[in-house]
Every structure is written in structure tokens, then in C-alpha cells.
Amino acid sequence: MRCCSQKIPTMISGALRIFSLRCMVLIGLCFLASSAGAENNDEKPVNVRAVVNVDWRHPGPPFEGWGTALAWFANVTGRFAEPRRTELADLLYGRDGLALNIARYNIGGGNAPGTPSYLRPGGDIPGFWRKPAEKSGTGWWNPDAEDAWDWSADTGQRWWLDAIKERVTPQELILEAFSNSPPYFMTRSGLVSGNVNALEDNLIPGFETKFSRYLARVTAELERRHGIRFRTLSPINEPNTPYWFSTNRQEGAHWSPEAQSRMFIALAQVLRERGMKTEISGPDETNPQTFFVDWAGLSADAKAVIRQINVHSYEWIGKSGVRDIAETSGKRLWMSEVDLSPSNVREDINDMRPAIALAQQIVTDINSMNPQAWILWQAIENRSSDPKNSSNWGLIKADFSNLERPEYRITKKFWAFANFTKFIRPGYRFLKSDDPDALVAEHPETNEVVIVVVNPGIVSRMLDIRLPDAKRGKLTCKTFITREKDNLATLKSASCAVRLSVHSLPMSVVTVVATPHK
User: Fold this and answer.
1) What confidence score (pLDDT) does residue 389 get?
2) What is the pLDDT at residue 54?
3) What is the pLDDT of residue 470?
4) Residue-level pLDDT at 44
């Protein structure tokens, strides 16, 4: 187990150790030759062999990158004592870490002053409004009055904005702002966690423009104060679901498709009036099937102002249908939120099962949806206090209760994610294959190919993958593996040819990077 109390070597690059398993050269590629489970050398290894066919002629659109939402972890960890918060920023956005390049900043709604604490740790994202003590009700806030704003709010997330800006090049950095709920004084329930009836909209009717002005002003002011640019703004989150009832423990609001349409149109009008170039994204629905209901119910005017479709993938059914809508509407598509924790698996940073689940989620999301970005929900989760009711959400487990002496631990999910994020970079294009557990990407200019293979079972696999001959010639291949015993361990580089044979060990994530010789 690795805790923050230990000295962290130069993040991932320092943590990589040369994988010492015996390797063999097969048609030019050095691959892992020991078979997990065959501890007796006299036992004959058993492999399943398969040929992986790749459609090299029809690459997808340029990939924009990998990222995470900053809510709720940044609200807490951005206030961690040094050097812990800097270490965490290096792990997520540093070049020696995961090298993420996308961040989704959560514009908080904020409950009324004096509201008893009931939101989950980190979930109490501050709003940017200021309420005079003598004011009450819903009509007191005037967005045109400077004393109605509090620009000192949300120090935790805003620290992360600066930290990310320092670590990601301007060419790769993409920022999105998003909202989970309007401020309390714009809601029917008076709470940012939802309506009393979770199936009823919570924004007060007629407040669409006022809420839009709130979101637009916060977006513009953060851009000015931090020297950044939010490319997109998503005003609603998982809108057409039964999640957002007033006593739930996070910000959220129900929006019917009709209410969504009014909000998108109002926000577009406000952005135009302010002369802002920020594009509208949405609807950030929880899964593809619910997104279909939203999209079918949106007005034509609302669809027209949405430049980027955001969909979460918390359900596997219907992913390819999301791709079809994006393609036929000519809109950019993001898989803008997901995470998971396998059922009946208690919190354990060394358990490979959550890592395999995350890797398979990524592969199926990208192969089915063909999104231009893939965004994790939140990379850092609060450490579970009750082992019997724990989970494996997040890539890093931290103690949110201790800001002065924080501790954190890196999970196997972190290393499995690194098998993707460190090698498939912005600008690569994904290619379709007939292997449901393989992800293939190619750089259109260098013709470097990255192949990530997930083996979720207990039997080894031998996969034969043929590269197109004309573009490449001689290749150098590097192989990286994450499994129970290894965290993104690397083999020595080896020459390889246009036919790659990849040994996919049981319960592992393997990445092969095939680089043409210059």
C-alpha cells in the first residue's frame, strides 16, 4: 500500500520499474511470455488465440483528451496543506502523472446561509452570490449590482484551475464549466439538492434568464481572474432523472425536456448579449436511453444552440445510438461523466477488479459512442470510514476530514487509467476493431499506433493484430502492463513488424505503442 506519508518518486515515470519477466520476440514484438496461474514450470500454459481485425480506412474524429470533473474533490483537496495538494495536481495533470488535459469546473449554486450541513463531504460547492443580512425571499438578488457578488468564493476549486493551467499546455488544455443546481433563492424548494418531489422541476418558473446571467457572469469572471477560457458551459446535469429530491446529499435539479429547452435558449441569448464566445454543451444526461428522451423532447431552437452533446455512460444500453445522434446532427460528442465500483467489492486500493471494470468501461464507451473526449466523474474520492459499506469509486482515496495533515492512497484504477491517458494523446484517432476488449488509436501524422487490451478473465489470450504495411516499415514497440503485481510496468523496447502478437495476461491491462522508425 502506498500512502502520501511516503516520499513519492517522480510520479508515474519514477514509479515505473522494468518488468523482469522473460520476454520473447514473435514477428518482431517483445511480449510477456510467462503465464499467470502456471506457477509450476512443467505445467503447459493455456492461451486463447484470436485474430483482431482493425478497420484502418475509417478513423474517427481527432480525440480531444482525457479529464475529470473537479466536483467535489477539488473543493476539499484544493484547501489541503502543502505539499499534498501539489502532489495530487502532479498525479492527475502533470506530464509524469496521468497527463490529463480536460477539467470540468462546477459552478456551485449554494444553499442559504445558516442551512444545517447535510451535503456529502465536498458537495457543498459555494455560490458566487452575496446575500445582505436583511434580505429574504427569492427576489432580492440583482445580478447588475456589484455587491450582489462574492468573488472570494470557492477557493478550493479555483486553486485547481491555477494548478491545471500551470501543468497543461495551452494547445491541449480544455476547460468546461457546468452546473448541478441553481442557487437556493432561484429554486422552488429553497434547497440546491432538488425539489421535494424529485420528478418536479426545481427552478422557479421564469427564472431561466436570471440563472443564465448568474452562470455567464461567473464564467466570464473566472476567465478574467484566472487567465483561462471555458470553451463550453453546461447549465444542467442529469436533468430528467428521479435523483434530485430535496433531502439528497448533493446538488441537483430536475429539468423536464420542456424546461431544458427554455434554459438552453435563455442561456444562448444571455451569452450573445454579453458577447461571449462560450459554447453551450448538454444535456449531461445520466445514460444514453434517458438522453434519447431528452433529445426527442427538446425544441428545434434548443437543439440548434447546443454545440456539444454531453452524455454520461452510467448504463451500457444505447451507447451507439448516442453516436448516431451526434453524427447526424453534426455536433461534437463528449462522454462527459462516469465512474463505477463493482458490486460486492469493498474498498481496496490493490484490488484489480475495479481497475479492470474501469478499463472495460473506457473501451466500450469509446468503441460504441466514438466520443471526442472521455471524462471521469471525480478522480479523488473520500476514503470510506466503514469497510462494510465502502466502495471503489475514484482513482485516489483521500481523507477529506483532515485539511492540515491529509493522507491519500493511489488505487489500481489510477494505474489502469494511465494505460490509456499517457499514450493516447490529443490528436489521435480511434479505429474500430472486432475485439470487444481492445482499443486501437493512431496518430494521423506520425502513424504511431497505440493498442490497449483488457483481459478481465483468468485465461491468457494471444492476440494477433496486423498493421497496414504501406505507412510504416520498421517499427519500435514498447509494452506496458498493469496487473495485480505491477503498476504500468514497462518492457524494454523491441523491434517489431506489421504483425503484432500481444500476450494479454489474466486480469491485466496491456498497452502496446508501435512507433515507426524515422
Assistant:
1) 87
2) 95
3) 55
4) 60
Q: Is this model's pTM higher than 0.85 or not? A: yes
Cα–Cα distance for residue pair 417/412, rounded to 1 Å: 9
Closest Cα partner for 377 from 80, 173, 203, 122?
Answer: 122
pLDDT value at residue 77: 98
Position 62: which residue type? P
Burial class of residue 408 in the structure, from the number of CB atoms within 10 Å of its CB (0-12 exposed, 13-18 middle, 19+ buried): buried
Query: How many Å apart are CA 9 and CA 2, to the nearest integer?
Result: 11
The grid coordinates of residue 355 equal: 481497475
For strands 174-179 and 102-107, give the pairing. Answer: parallel
Q: Which of 500, 469, 507, 468 is nearest to 485 (CA)?
A: 507
Q: Which residues of the chain have pLDDT under 70?
A: 1-45, 469-472
Rounded-to-integer distance, Cα 117 and Cα 97, Å: 35
User: Rounded CA gap, 238 and 245, in Å?
Assistant: 13
Please spell the DSSP secondary structure of 133-158, one letter per residue.
TT--SSS---TT-GGGB-TT--HHHH
Place of cell 482493425: 54
- For residue 497 the three cell numbers come to 513488424
State residue 45's pLDDT score.
62
Residues 430 and 440: their CA atoms lie apart, in Å, by 6
CA-derived radius of gyration, the chain: 24
Assess contact for 25 and 111: CB atoms under 8 A.
Answer: no
Q: Which pLDDT score is estimated for 29?
A: 41
Sign of torsion, CA 140 141 147 150?
A: positive
pLDDT for 17 equals 41
Across-strand partners of 203?
187
